[in-house]
Design brief:
five-stranded parallel β-sheet, four-stranded mixed β-sheet, alpha/beta
């Protein structure tokens, strides 16, 4: 079974956990660490002969085109993570369309290839923002990887389909974040803070179970999740826990994961040609 490995390319200060204390107008003034951290991931993937899909912020692409070029040259898929890491449901339709178009233009200008995939910042396509799919489709994209079929205070559609499917209205292919069905509830696994928080044995068991059921898992990580030396930002207890938990052991976990399972790009798994 080939599973999807995805990397959301954003810097440590661009995460939603810090949105209340770090303004977008301050981003340019902060130390950027996204290039070194992304290159660290590229090196790990090269060691294991693994290809992945990199969902790149347009803001990052514009300021670090050399990184986007390196990712593309290594044979990985590049998709869009939007432009300025704005939550979809916090934008108007017009604002979202503009943000998406800016991101696609920034990336395609660098790689000279068509972008076909999208992931919303912080999984922010919810029942309140399903209108985004029409805009994503009209932008020429072929698939979305934004839906988390769970309950969460910031995102999630608990009753959404748990595996790859096609949206009836738009024909857009959806590759949801991985969950396990336990006691009538969907439990998040295989990425982000859940990957950092859970012991590796639980993640391994969860992915193996998903594969035994006949489905590919969706694994997602961020470059900053491998950076123990990133500047510490003073934030509330919950937000701080969500951001910093498990960073010290994350690289070891990823290496074990790449040794235990096979991974590829979203494009490859979905069988979408350019």
């Amino acid at each position: 079974m080939l599973n999807a490995l995805t990397i959301d390319v954003e810097d440590y200060y661009q995460v939603e956990n810090f949105a209340g204390v770090v303004k977008r107008s301050e981003w340019e003034k902060l130390e950027s660490r996204v290039v070194r951290n992304a290159r660290r991931i590229l090196d790990i993937l090269a060691e294991h002969g693994t290809k992945a899909t990199f969902f790149v912020l347009g803001w990052v692409a514009e300021r670090h085109p050399e990184l986007v070029t390196e990712i593309d040259a290594a044979g990985h898929e590049i998709a869009t993570h939007g432009y300025a890491h704005e939550l979809v449901y916090s934008q108007s339709r017009e604002e979202f369309a503009k943000d998406l178009a800016l991101s696609i233009t920034a990336i395609e200008k660098i790689i000279n290839k068509k972008v076909i995939g999208y992931r919303a910042p912080s999984c922010s396509i919810t029942k309140d923002s399903l209108w985004a799919f029409d805009i994503i489709k009209k932008a020429g994209l072929r698939y979305d990887a934004s839906i988390f079929p769970i309950h969460h205070d910031r995102y999630g559609i608990p009753d959404a389909k748990r595996y790859v499917h096609r949206w009836d209205d738009t024909g857009l292919v959806e590759f949801p974040f991985s969950t396990l069905r336990v006691a009538g509830h969907n439990i998040p696994v295989a990425g982000g803070g859940y990957f950092r928080l859970y012991p590796y044995a639980i993640t391994k068991w969860a992915i193996a179970r998903i594969n035994r059921d006949g489905y590919p898992a969706m694994v997602y990580v961020h470059p900053w999740e491998f950076d123990q030396d990133q500047p510490r930002i003073k934030v509330g207890r919950l937000a701080g826990f969500r951001h910093y938990v498990g960073i010290a052991s994350n690289e070891k976990k990823l290496r074990r994961l790449l040794g235990d399972f096979k991974f590829g790009t979203v494009r490859e798994i979905l069988g979408i040609d350019r």
